[in-house]
Amino acid sequence: MTHSTSTTASTTGGPGLRAGRKEWTAFVVLLLPLLLVSMDVSVLYFALPSISRELDPSATQQLWIIDVYAFALAGLLITMGSLGDRIGRRRLLMFGAAAFGLASVTAAYATSADMLIAARALLGVGGATLMPSTMGLVRNMFRDDKQRGQAIGIWSGAMAGGIALGSVLSGIMLEHLWWGSVFLINVPAMLLLLVLVPVLVPEFKDPEPGRFDLLSVPLSMGAVLPMVYGLKELAANGFSTTSAACVAAGLVLGVVFVRRQLTRRDAMISRTLFLPGRGFGAAISLNTIAAFAMMGSAYFTTQYLQSVLDMSSLRAALWSVAPSLAIGGAAPAATAIAQKVNRAYVIAAGFLVGGAGYALLALLGTDSLWLLLAGTAIIGMGIVTVMALVSDMALASAPAEKAGSAASLLETGQEFGGALGMAVLGSIGTAVYRADMPASAPPAARETLGAAVAGADRALATVAQEAFVHGMQYAAAGGTLLLLIAAVVAARLLRGPAEAARAAAAAQDEDSAEAGPVRAAAQPAVR
């Protein structure tokens, strides 16, 4: 039996550059890992009480059960994106799917807290392989500009919906099943992925990848992990020497990592991604700001529903899904508009819409459910619009053989942006909350709204709820200002690069389509 070695010159099978039914079917299959990876960020919210009863984790172990998945995911994205470009994105996707499925079974039947932490870490490793591989494959399968924009628009909406769906689905399942069931939902999807991907998805990889820079792996992890951890600690517990030291250490190692990428021919991150005029760096930065805004609002929304409006966790999760109905349609609509209007202006409009949503949150009182839902929906619609268009722009501007690396940088920026949004806006809200709380209040109640509401003093709980809303208003005003500035920056900086990225992608893909059959024929058969 013989087969040809695949390269980036593989064709997508449609007439010309346009993808056909096979590619769209493959795209639906590739949405499975995206949904599951995004759902696993929030799937434990309702399972923690049951896990605590069964496995009796310490407070530190409980925190690691929640956080180790996101840390492993964030720390390995850059490595896995570069690895997929070298060994093949489909191959890495298959490895990731197998690891994700195995880790899910291990987590479901964990018999100790340490075993569950290890399984969650392996889930993060699997997730880090799945995310850049799937987005890189989307870039290669959809070479027509309009189709690629549509696919990435659907992609962005699915990712936003997956996070909300994870908490709701876990809550519903735990009403009827044991806590491990929230992990087993991954297994059928991963098995389906392992069966269908080899049939539907062609392989793509860099035909001249160069050596893999092993030293850059610990450097990239050393840059990302301390900063993400420090920012999360800052959001959860306020400023401390530990959180500041972690962020500082991450910045130092980040500088070392960047210098290494600039001086090596076999760099993990290719310098061609940042060629002048393409706008890749600007797209990464704006995507990070968008994630900042999305996660910054989520930090307050969950607490408002549960601790101000006094909803149960499941009821709060169900209400939080409502805005997703509007958010899910925003990205496809925005990509359609961007086919007729310079996407720089559509991106700027997305930031303005998000800023309007934050302005609504600045008007909240202590009984403003519908205003909260409206503000959250508008923020989500604006931010998903931005994320879809800047992701498409970044991938279009990147060489096709570096699509995995480009996707990994986008997603790493999102991790940074989300952690930074919770840290900065959360710190603003917390500072106002503590200033408003009476000095006579118990120390725990002065620290967090949850502690104040959990106490027996209803008058103090009312004061705490008002203080929290006051802090949320200030944070929302800060979010509004940030997004207004981002809108101006996007409109000014992206007008030329947006069109240049589109033209570069079209030219590159046309060359690839013409050269593909020739290169494939030239490859030696492999027995």
List keywords for this structure.
mainly alpha, Growth Hormone, Chain: A, 19 helices
Can you give me a brief rundown of this structure?
With 527 residues, this protein is an all-alpha fold. The chain has 19 helices and no strands.
Taken as a percent bin, the fraction of beta residues is under 5%
The whole-number mean of residue pLDDT values reads 81
Assigned CATH class of the largest domain: Mainly Alpha
Shape: globular
Fold-level CATH name of the largest domain:
Growth Hormone, Chain: A
C-alpha end-to-end distance? 6 Å
The counted number of beta strands is 0
What are the segments in which pLDDT stays under 50 over at least 5 consecutive residues? Answer: 1-16, 515-527
Tell me the name of the CATH homologous superfamily of the largest domain: MFS general substrate transporter like domains
Helix fraction by DSSP (H/I, runs of at least 4): over 70%
- What integer value in Å does the Rg equal? 23 Å
Encode the helix/strand succession as letters.
Answer: HHHHHHHHHHHHHHHHHHH
Under the CATH scheme, the architecture of the largest domain is Up-down Bundle
Tally of discrete structural domains: 3
Query: If helices are DSSP runs of H or I spanning 4 or more residues, what is the number of helices?
Result: 19
Major sheet description: none
Q: Classify the secondary structure makeup into a structural class.
A: mainly alpha
Draw up the topology in text.
Layout (H helix, E strand, L loop, with lengths): L20 H22 L5 H8 L3 H29 L1 H20 L4 H29 L3 H30 L6 H4 L1 H15 L15 H22 L3 H23 L16 H29 L4 H26 L4 H19 L7 H29 L5 H34 L6 H5 L1 H6 L3 H36 L1 H28 L5
